[in-house]
Amino acid sequence: MPILQFVMSQQFVTLGWIKVCGIRDVATAEAAAAAGASAVGLNFFAKSPRFVAPADAAHIVSVLSVSATRAVGLFVNHSRDEIESITAQAGLAAIQLHGDETPSFVTDLHQRHPDWEILKAFRIGDSLQPVVEFLAECETLNVRLAGCLIDARVDGSFGGTGEVAPWRLIARDYDRTNWPPLILAGGLTPDNVASAIKTVRPMGVDTASGVESSLGVKDTKLLARFVAEAQRAFAKT
Questions:
Q1: Which is the most buried residue in 123, 142, 187, 192, by most CB within 10 A?
Q2: Mean pLDDT for each 10-residue chunk of the chain (237 residues)?
């Protein structure tokens, strides 16, 4: 694999980073913060059962401002204008691109908003080649990423499926030295997150469906247990 050098944030995704994605209300956001989550994800993809309106997201962001938990806006093939408008309305400084966005699109956003932390999600099957190619072009364009989120590839879906990503493939092929911080997603639950961290050795983990009692509805007890299990596993890493 090529050696890629990036100018990356050293403050956003660090070892032990834990994100709970698909938060839709203040009470659940507060529960995530109380449990010790590093970040919560606010999903602006209208077709998702975890969609949150920008006005509601702004309320969540305001409540989280007194905690150490950060809010990340999740976008799927939104236009630049939509991302800028929603991000401003919600008061966000970190975004996650979870669709088919190109390195050129990321570069445009980064140049217009150099203070934003930008995560890019990749849906992986039997190869990390999409990551290799994307990051190689990012290097050519001199754009930074705050982190790469690796999710399971499920045809017709943009994530949140509960399918487990290929842990051993990621552990073997992800270049931790030269690539952005690795965030593992895809089917993570309180029961398997410790094994995932031990196997893959990511910088962070991300869950959505793995802490839900029903589609799009978070179970705060599962959420707290997920964070606790992840924290214990990271402490051993």
A1: 123
A2: 41 95 98 98 97 98 97 98 98 97 97 97 94 97 95 64 89 96 97 98 97 97 98 95
Q: Which secondary-structure segment (H or E) carries 150?
A: strand 147-152
Task: Please tell me the number of Cα atoms within 13 Å of 27 on its side-chain side.
Answer: 5
Class for the domain spanning 17-235: alpha beta
Q: Which of 179, 113, 172 is nearest to 145 (CA)?
A: 179
Q: Which two tokens stand for residue 57?
A: 């997201």
Q: Which amino acid is at 178?
A: N
Helix segments in 121-215, DSSP class H: 129-141, 167-173, 193-200
Instruction: Enumerate residues 6+ apart whose C-beta is below 8 A from 122.
Output: 128, 130, 131, 134, 148, 149, 150, 151
Active-site residues, by number, are 21, 151
pTM of the model: 0.92
If DSSP codes are grouped into helix, strand and coil, which group holds residue 167?
helix
Report the run of H or E that residue 182 belongs to, with start and end: strand 182-184
